[in-house]
Amino acid sequence: MTVQPGLILVADDDPDIVALVSAVLRRAGFDVVEASDGAEALELLRTRRPQLAVLDISMPKLDGLEVLRLMRAEPESSGLPVVLLSARAQEADVRDGYAQGASKYVRKPFSPRELVAVVRELLAF
Amino acid sequence: MSALRRPWLAYLLLGLAAVGIYFLLPWDTPGQAALYDGIGASSALAVVAGTLLNRPAHRLPWLFFAAGLLAFSIGDSIFNLYGYVWDKTPPIPSFADAFYLAAYPVIAAGLALLILRFGALERRAGLIDAALFTVAFALAQWVFLMKDLVHGEGSVAAKAVEAAYPGMDVVLLSGLAVFWLCPAWRTVAYRYLAASLVLLLVADEVYGTSPDTYANAGWLDTGWLLSYVLWGVAALHPSMTALTRRTPSMQPRLTWSRTALLAGALLTAPAVLLVQHITGGGIESIAIVVCGTMLSILVMARMAGLFQALDRLRGQERSARSEVESAHRLLQQQNEQLRAADQLKDEFVALISHDLRTPLTSIMGYLELTMDDTELTDEQRGYLEVVERNSQRLFHLVNDLLFVARLEAGQLDLEPADLDLAAIVRQFVEEVRPRARAKGIELRCNAADVATVSADKGRVFQLLDNLVSNAIKFTPEGGKIHVCVTRRSESVRIEITDTGIGIALEEQGQLFQRFFRATTARDEQIPGTGLGLYIARAIVEAHGGEIAVESKPGEWTTFRIELPLATTSARTAELVS
User: With the CA atoms of B460, B465, B470 and B475 taken in that order, what torsion angle do they form, in degrees rounded to the nearest 10?
Assistant: First the structure.
C-alpha cells in the first residue's frame, strides 16, 4: 500500500481537539483519519499510510514521542512529516520533540489557521 | 577642707591625732585615762551620728554596734575609776567586767543582723566556711587559753569571768569570719569594720595569752583605741548603707586565701593533739574529739552543698540542652514541611498550567473557527471578541504562573545569543502598534543602532511584552508611550515611558514583588495578577542587568532597564568589522 496523498492522521486523547483539528484540516481540503491513543495511531499509520501525522504527546497506551520514535525506526515511515501538538510548553519539551525527529512542534493552545499553514508548508516539500 | 565635707575622714584624722596624743601624754595619769575613755565614748557617738547621717535601710545593726561600743567605753571608765579615783585594783569580777562582757554579745548580735541580709546562697557556703574556721579557733582557744583559766585557782565567778573573755573573742571572730568568707560586699565601710574587729581581737588575744605584756608596755592600747576609731569611721563612711542592702547572690570563689584558711582550720585538731603530745601536759581528748567531729560534719555539709549546686547546674544544663534540641527538631520538621509544601506548590502550578492549556486549546481553537464564519452578525462578533479577549487573558495568566513556578524551582534556562537589541525592539514595537492604536495611544520608538547584547531572544520579547502591555493597560486613551534604546558605556539602556496613571512613591519599592499590585491599579480596577513586573525583574536579573522605575502619580511612569553589553570578545569583533 502506498502513501495516500492528502490523507492526514490526527491523534489526540481529547476528542474535542481531534474534532477541531479534523475540522480545520477538512476545511483546508485534506482527508483525515482519527486516533484517540498512541497504539491506535501506530496501527492507522501502518494500515492507512497517511501523508502526514499530527500527534499529541500526552496520550494513553503509547505517548506521542514513543509513536514518533517507533515510526522513525521503520523505513516505511522514517521520512513521514510529523507535527507534534502538545500542552507541554517548556523549551526543554520542544527540544525533546525535535530530538525525537518531529518536523514541527506546535504548542497548545494553537491557532487553527497557523496549524493549517504548518501542514501545508510541510507537504509542499 | 575636704575633711570637713567628709565626716568619716574628719573623724579618722581626729581619732588618729587623739591616739597619737594618748601616747605623748605622761603615762598612767588621770588625763591620759580620760582621753582613753573619751576616744571610746566618741566611737559610740560616731556610730550613732553615721547611722543618722547615712540613713541605712536597716539601722538596728548599727545601733547594736553603738550600744556595744558604749558598753566597752563604760567598762573602760569604771576600770579607770578604780585606778585613779578609788585608788585600788579592781576586783575580779568587777562592774567593768559586766559592761565588757555585755558588749561582746551586743556587737555580735549587730554582726548577725548584718549577715542575715546576705542572699541565702552566699550565706550557706560562707556560714559553713566561717563555722569551720570558728570551731578550729575555738578548739585552740579552749586548749591554750580557757582550759587553764577554768581549771585554775580562784572563785567560780572569777574563773567564769576570766574564761568568758576568750569565749567572747570566739563569738566575735565567728562574726568576722562570716563577714570575710561571704562574698557579699567589699565596700570601704566593710574594710574599716573588718580592720576594727581584727584590731580588737588581736589586742584581746595578746592580752589573753600573756597579760604581763600589758603591764610592761601600753602598746596594746593602740589596738583597742584604733579599733574604736575605725568603727566610728566605718559608720560615718557613706558606703556603710551597702552593708545592709541585699545584693544579688553569688557563690564564693575558691581563692588561695580561702583554701589556705580552710586547710588550716581542718589541720587544727591534729596540730593541737601533736602540740599537747610534745609538751606532755595531758591531752584534751574530749575537746579535740568534739571539735574534730564538728569539723568533719561541717566539711560534709559543705560538700553536700557543692554537690547539690553541681546537680542543680547539671539539671539546668540538661533541660537547656533538651530545649535546644527540641527547638532544633521542630525547626527541622518545619523546614521539611516547608520544603514539601514548596515542592507541592510548584508541582501544582506546573500541573494546573498544563491542564489549563488543554481546555484553552479547544476554547480558542473553536472560537477562531467560529469567527472565520462570515455570516455572523456584528453583535455576535462583538460577543465572541469578548470571549477571545478573556481567553487571551487566561492564556497569559497560565503562562505567567508556569513561568513563576519554573523560576522559583530554579529552572529558568536562558538560551543567550548575541542580539541586536535595537532591531528586536523595533520589531516588537511594530507588533504591538495595532494594540496601542486600538486604544488611541501614540506609540513612538527611538532605537538607534547599539552594540549587541548577549540575551535570550524569547525572554527579551517576553520582557518587552510585559512592560509595553502594562504601559498600554495603564495609559488612558489619547496618551503616549515612548520606547527608547540608547547605548551606555557598559550597557544598553531601554526606557519605556508612558503618560499613564503612575505609581505612588511609597509603592515603587514593592512594585517588583510577586503578586504586588499598586493601589492606583486596584482603584482603577485594571485587571492583572501582579506577576508581570516580578517576571520582568527576574528576566532582567537573569541577564545580569538591572530594572528600575520612576513615576509621578497621575502623570507619567518610566521603566528603565540596563542590560550588560555582550562579552568583550564579541564587542571587539563588532568594532573590528
Answer: 120
